[in-house]
């Protein structure tokens, strides 16, 4: 009798897990990113580290079993080069914002829905910026120093994220503006600070050349069906600015970047205007030149 009950309990557990996976994978990503990030860690040796995120809660199971997860390595030899996606359609104007320390990252939340991104006729309102160091996405295996995520969302909960990669160099204009506010909330998880009016245009984007693929949130619950846009142009940020972002969260970790996830059978597109010459991959020398141009084209 006990054996039968144990088998039944096991079957119920498996059925519940499969049901959760089907529901999560077939629906738009409507879950918000966690505001309290103390329930997980970026420490690879921790019991709540990235490899264990999917075991912490049933609703985080996609972190372990999802097949369209982010971040990924953007390998230029594997992308489909297109021009029909066209320039990014973005509307930006100065808006009120709040800076918040979420424990593992710093979030700049826009309190008005006056900025948006238009993709396939769908309007995504800009909700927030946050930063990861080093970068989560890589290009041809190369990890950059910082990545900004510009998170957009529709009223129905669909999410689109613009990722901007940075390497160490000249200071970033937006982070320079936020310097005093970052110091004010440093080491205080959950602390918020009204920063007044911020212009999203301070992050100057090359709207013509970008990668596009379908992925997930890079933090639990790792919700899928996220439309990712990674700007091809690499921006600059100072070493001190990156250090300020890490010191501010004070989570005793050197990184808040999730490890790379398998591409599986997903398509990655690189939008380039027709006037641009096609990328060439005939030889290793061409590959090296292409990669060098990628990071020197600011």
UniProtKB/TrEMBL annotation:
An example Gene Ontology molecular-function term: zinc ion binding
Cell location: Plastid, Chloroplast stroma
SUPFAM superfamilies: Carbonic anhydrase (SSF51069)
Keywords: Signal
All copies of domain Alpha-carbonic anhydrase, residue ranges: 38-272
GO cellular component, one term: chloroplast stroma
Signal peptide: 1-24
Primary location group: plastid
Gene Ontology terms describing biological process: one-carbon metabolic process
Coiled coil: none
Record field: catalytic activity: hydrogencarbonate + H(+) = CO2 + H2O
Pfam families: Carb_anhydrase
Protein family: Belongs to the alpha-class carbonic anhydrase family.
Main function: Reversible hydration of carbon dioxide.
Protein's UniProt name: Alpha carbonic anhydrase 7-like
Organism per entry: Cicer arietinum (Chickpea)
Phylogenetic classification of the source organism: Eukaryota, Viridiplantae, Streptophyta, Embryophyta, Tracheophyta
């Amino acid at each position: 009798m006990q054996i039968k009950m144990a088998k039944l309990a096991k079957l119920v557990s498996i059925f519940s897990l499969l049901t959760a996976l089907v529901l999560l994978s077939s629906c738009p990503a409507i879950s918000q990113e966690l505001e309290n990030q103390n329930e997980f860690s970026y420490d690879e040796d921790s019991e709540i580290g990235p490899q264990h995120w999917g075991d912490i809660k049933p609703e985080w199971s996609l972190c372990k079993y999802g097949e369209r997860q982010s971040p990924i390595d953007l390998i230029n030899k594997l992308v489909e080069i297109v021009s029909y996606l066209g320039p990014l359609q973005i509307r930006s104007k100065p808006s009120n914002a709040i800076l918040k320390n979420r424990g593992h990252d710093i979030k700049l939340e826009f309190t008005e829905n006056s900025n948006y991104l238009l993709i396939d006729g769908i309007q995504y309102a800009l909700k927030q910026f946050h930063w990861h160091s080093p970068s989560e996405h890589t290009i041809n295996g190369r990890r950059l120093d910082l990545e900004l995520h510009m998170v957009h969302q529709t009223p129905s909960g669909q999410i689109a994220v613009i990722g901007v990669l940075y390497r160490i160099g000249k200071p970033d204009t937006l982070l320079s503006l936020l310097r005093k506010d970052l110091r004010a909330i440093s080491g205080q998880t959950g602390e918020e600070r009204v920063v007044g009016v911020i212009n999203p245009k301070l992050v100057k984007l090359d709207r013509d050349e970008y990668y596009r693929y379908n992925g997930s949130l890079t933090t639990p619950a790792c919700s899928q069906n996220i439309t990712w846009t990674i700007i091809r142009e690499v921006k600059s940020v100072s070493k001190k600015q990156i250090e300020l972002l890490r010191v501010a969260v004070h989570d005793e970790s050197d990184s808040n970047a999730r490890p790379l996830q398998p591409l599986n059978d997903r398509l990655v597109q690189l939008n380039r205007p027709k006037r641009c010459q096609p990328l060439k991959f005939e030889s290793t020398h061409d590959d090296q030149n292409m990669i060098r141009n990628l990071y020197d084209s600011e």
